[in-house]
Amino acid sequence: MNNKVALITGSSSGIGRTTALTFARNGFGVIINHLNDREQAEQVLKEVQNAGSQGLVIQADVSKSDEAKHMMDVAVEEFGHIDVLVNNAGITRDQLMVRLSDEDWLQVINTNLNGAFYCSRAAVKYMMKKRYGRIINISSVVGISGNAGQTNYAAAKSGLLGLTFSIAHEYGRRGINANAVAPGYIQSNMTAKLSPEQTEKIKSGIAVGRLGTSDDIAGVIAFLASPAADYINGQVIRVDGGLSGL
Ligand code: NAD
After folding, report:
1. Could you give the CA distance from residue 170 to residue 122 in angstroms, rounded to a whole number?
2. How would residue 134 be classed by pLDDT, with cut points 50, 70 and 90?
3. What residues flank ligand 1, with Cβ below 6 Å?
4. Sheet of 84-87: strands edge to edge?
5. For residues 37 and 49, what is the distance between their CA atoms, to the nearest angstrom?
6. How many CB atoms lie within 10 A of CB 148?
7. H helices of 6-140, where?
8. Which residue out of 8, 9, 11, 15 has the highest number of ligand 1 atoms within 8 Å of its CB and is therefore the one to mutate?
9. Is residue 128 pLDDT above 70, yes or no?
10. Labelling 206: which of 5, 142, 144, 224 has CA 20 to 30 A away?
11. What single-letter DSSP state applies at residue 131?
């Protein structure tokens, strides 16, 4: 995998951070994108360098088309190419639909879905030149089954699946594969918002009896970016420990 470069959006924390470190350990150059936590992103950069890889931090709001494009341009200026794009940046703004504001609907769609589109469109232009690319979209089990209180999030995560399948059809012949990972409940800032009672209830519905870790997800992302997955295209892989009810 040497000389390959991976850009992971929202990689100053959680699943994105662990994915950046996993790629670094696998010999990839790593581009760490963050929205507004430079300090944490610089810390991830140090760890990437300690793992013996080259890294670069780029601040960009993926929900802004021009910022997403600029990030890809800078990444290619610095590294010469982008081989792997992991669309990981995401937010939740949970609320029952009748109480959901236009703003919270739009913010979630803009970040979780439009952001992945802006980044993929910008990256594919460079990937086509090399006739090689791997796009990995971080969806959610909620994007497959829906969830009460998450109409915005579920709609965005379902949309990501349609985006993934369509990129796979449109660019498969040009050496670009697109796949999605659908995590269940993973320990991170996102699930830290749940109350202990909610967490216990969720755990009781997971066959393996625990929430997932960011390593559980990063390993699957790294697999999808590896030569072992070269013939996997347009798929969604659930990584949820055997979750029932969703
Ligand atoms: P997290 O909050 O640690 O990570 C999300 C990252 O996205 C943060 O670093 C945040 O700063 C970044 N981000 C948010 N908006 C951004 C923007 N506009 N531009 C750039 N970066 C932005 O939580 P996480 O659990 O690591 O989430 C990572 C991904 O996994 C998300 O897409 C999330 O929806 C998905 N996911 C998480 C779980 C879970 O249980 N934790 C389950 C399913 C899917």
Report:
1. 15
2. very high
3. 9-10, 12-16, 33, 35, 61-63, 88-91, 111, 115, 138, 140, 183, 185-186, 188-191
4. 55-59, 29-34, 5-8, 84-87, 133-138, 176-183, 236-239
5. 19
6. 9
7. 14-25, 38-50, 65-79, 102-108, 115-130
8. 15
9. yes
10. 224
11. T
CB contact at 8 A, 111 and 190:
no
Closest-lying ligand 1 atom to the alpha carbon of residue 153: 34
Ligand 1 centroid distance, CA of 91 (Å): 6
CA of residue 214 to ligand 1 center, whole Å: 11
As given in the structure block, the two tokens for residue 74 are 């800078």
The H helix count followed by the E strand count for the chain is: 10, 7
| Pair 25, 219: CB distance under 8 Å | no
Mutation to probe ligand 1, out of 39, 188, 202, 217 (largest number of atoms < 8 A from CB): 188
Tell me how many degrees the CA angle 138-202-183 measures, rounded to the nearest 5: 10
d(CA 237, CA 219): 12
Query: How is residue 193 written in tokens?
Result: 């918002």
pLDDT at 2 over 80: no
Q: How far is the CA of 16 from the centre of ligand 1 (A)?
A: 7
Q: Which amino acid is at 146?
A: G
Residue 153 has pLDDT above 70, yes or no: yes
pTM of the model: 0.98
Ligand 1 pocket check: which of 21, 190, 203, 236 to mutate, most ligand atoms within 8 Å of Cβ? 190
The CA 173 to ligand 1 mean position distance, Å, reads 31
Residues 6+ apart with CB under 8 A from 132: 83, 175, 176
- Enter the tokens of residue 130: 């090399």
Residue 109 DSSP label: I
Tell me, what amino acid is at 138?
I
Can 185 be counted among the known catalytic residues? no
